Amino acid sequence: MADEREVLTWERFGSATRELTQMVLDSGFEPEIVLSITRGGLLPAGAIAYALDNKNIHIINVEFYTGVDQRLPEPVFLPPLPATTYLDGATVLIVDDVADTGETLKLVREFCDKHAVESRVAVLYEKSRSVIKCDYVWKRTDQWITFPWSALPPMTASTRVDN
């Protein structure tokens, strides 16, 4: 059915990030840097960094999607880029919420591979059409994914939050 969605709840998110962290540990990879692709990768990267007890977390901002199923011709970096001196010679775990087309992850991995000694990719979800195959994947799906942090519409100054 076209309307079927993969729904990630906050509770499942917690379990998913712990399971992803366990995959990283089981592989023997010891990232010196956790690199979050914003915005979707912020919360997974933070949870994984906490689980790894890694305080060396950086963000990289890439714009590709401009709306639901609307995107630019190709992903582009938004400033500021992380200082490459932090990446030089480091092992980097790149974290995002989903590898949809995989183009964003491909761009970030190519950027990291110019500086880091090794980079690996961890995502909550990977879709079959992704041009990059991630190293650590919690779940594979081709459904539209509803994430807990984006399930509700954006708030405005006039939005009222009732307790």
UniProtKB/TrEMBL annotation:
Keyword ATP-binding: no
Domain of life per record: Bacteria
Keywords linked to the UniProt accession: Glycosyltransferase, Transferase
InterPro entries: PRTase-like, PRTase_dom
An example Gene Ontology molecular-function term: glycosyltransferase activity
UniProt signal peptide: none
Glycosyltransferase recorded as keyword: yes
SUPFAM superfamilies cross-referenced by the UniProt entry: PRTase-like
Residue span(s) of domain Phosphoribosyltransferase: 6-150
Name listed for the protein in its UniProt record: Phosphoribosyltransferase
Organism of provenance: Propioniciclava tarda
Source lineage: Bacteria, Bacillati, Actinomycetota, Actinomycetes, Propionibacteriales
